[in-house]
């Protein structure tokens, strides 16, 4: 059995809490690694948190302006030459095998490898190798091993809290805990599209949320904003998202998904509580999509350098009245289009002189970030929003979702190239 297969098998059979110990041991044994670290992207996507044993004494590194952050942002391995680092730290308990002995001095290579699943950026695996052990074949195998680790981390989250805890730069509020557990991920890549999204304040979000699901032929996308604050808003959004999922998984149309969620919310609250929502269903082959505007989230489109809002026929928020009928509208995206969907906490924010963020700043930041990948656009918008808002003013939840449409050619292949 070759060394990559041996390493991958070790990860497949490792206990959920022991994945980092296992990847350290197999990298040392099979590739001669002298140091291995796993960094998890925090909820705000600003820091890379080291996976350590509590009480988490190791220091995080910023995503911006750091070597591991460069790998996370580009989603490509980043290899840098360096002298040997300090001897391997002892913050990971019970490694299966010791790492290779570190020479006193000498050149070394550190490979920072993105740890991602279908475009969802989980973190970075950093592996330091002695000079001579950093062949292109070894680096390619380690990049594949980081992919295997990513899949194992997703499975492990069902059985251990270790990696979820490692992502936290500070404690989540209970409402935020509920909202983050609802999400399908923060990014997703398929040949036909790329999605990137973010919730803020990441550690204290309460009402805003997003959801998506894909089949061979369709992408269903929903953005929701439960009214109110704290736990009440989180509970309301939880009910709406799960009602929409229940209807979607039953094979109902987009209009019926909205109607079922509307009925579920009205049955529980008799109109006293409601949820603003945008519901989409995209045809992956043609780019045609149905959309239902049931509340406050809004859409902007960047097409051939021109930014403009997509005006929709507003309909009632989910749960406001009993048996509300919902009628989809029909639009189409073209290859190269970018859609930006934002909640009212983004577009309705005002500056000191009363200017709405949606008036000019949002258009400007969309134009300025047109060359960034969809996964990086939400943070660019959040940076612009922070500069626009009145300093120190209370702010609403902010939900930002960016969709880049690549399209599919007539033979079924995507038209996107990178």
TrEMBL record:
InterPro entries cross-referenced by the UniProt entry: Bact_Sigma-Reg, PPM-type-like_dom_sf, PPM-type_phosphatase-like_dom
UniProt keyword annotations, A-Z: Hydrolase
Gene Ontology molecular function: phosphatase activity
Keyword Hydrolase among record annotations: yes
Provenance organism: Streptomyces finlayi
Region described as Disordered: spans on this chain: 83-110
Keyword Lyase: no
Domain PPM-type phosphatase per the UniProt entry, residue ranges: 192-405
Name of this protein: Phosphatase
